[in-house]
Design goal:
The chain is mostly helical. 54% of the residues lie in helices and 11% in strands.
Length: 132
C-alpha cells in the first residue's frame, strides 16, 4: 500500500497539467484491491478545499468525486465512516471540513463542538458561541 498526497489526487481528477496528470494517472491506475493506495482524512479535507477554492467546483460535484474515491476498491480511506457521515451532513448545508470537525468530535465522545462560525453551527453537532 502507498499513501497518496492531495496533489496527486487533484492531478488525477482534474487532468489540468499534462505531465503530472499523466504520472498521477499511471500511479493510480496501477493500484489494485490487493495493493491499494491510502487516502488520509487530511488529504480528503484538503482535496475538497482545493477543488472548491482553486478550481471552483460545486459542492455537489466535490461530494460526488469524494464518494467515488470512497467506493474505489483500489483505495483505503482513513476514517471512512467519518468521511461518509461528513458527506451526509454536507447535504444539510454544512461545509465538508466543518462536518469532519464535528463528526470527529462526536466520535471522540464530545456532546457537541463549539464554534463562532454561523454556517458551521447549522450542524446539529455544533453550537454557536455567543459573543458580548
Amino acid at each position: 500500500m502507498i499513501g497518496l498526497d492531495t496533489n496527486v489526487i487533484v492531478r488525477y481528477l482534474v487532468q489540468d497539467e499534462p505531465d503530472q496528470s499523466s504520472t498521477a494517472s499511471a500511479v493510480i491506475d496501477a493500484l489494485t484491491a490487493e495493493d491499494p493506495g491510502f487516502l488520509s482524512l487530511v488529504t480528503l479535507v484538503e482535496l475538497y478545499w482545493v477543488l472548491r477554492r482553486a478550481y471552483r467546483i460545486s459542492t455537489a460535484r466535490c461530494a460526488e468525486l469524494i464518494e467515488g474515491l470512497l467506493n474505489a476498491r483500489e483505495l483505503r480511506i482513513d476514517q471512512e465512516s467519518v468521511v461518509r457521515a461528513s458527506l451526509a451532513a454536507r447535504l444539510g448545508g454544512v461545509d465538508f471540513a466543518d462536518a469532519v470537525i464535528a463528526e470527529l468530535g462526536r466520535v471522540a465522545g464530545c456532546d457537541h463542538t463549539v464554534t463562532f462560525d454561523r454556517r458551521a453551527a447549522q450542524s446539529n453537532q455544533m453550537r454557536l458561541l455567543a459573543t458580548p
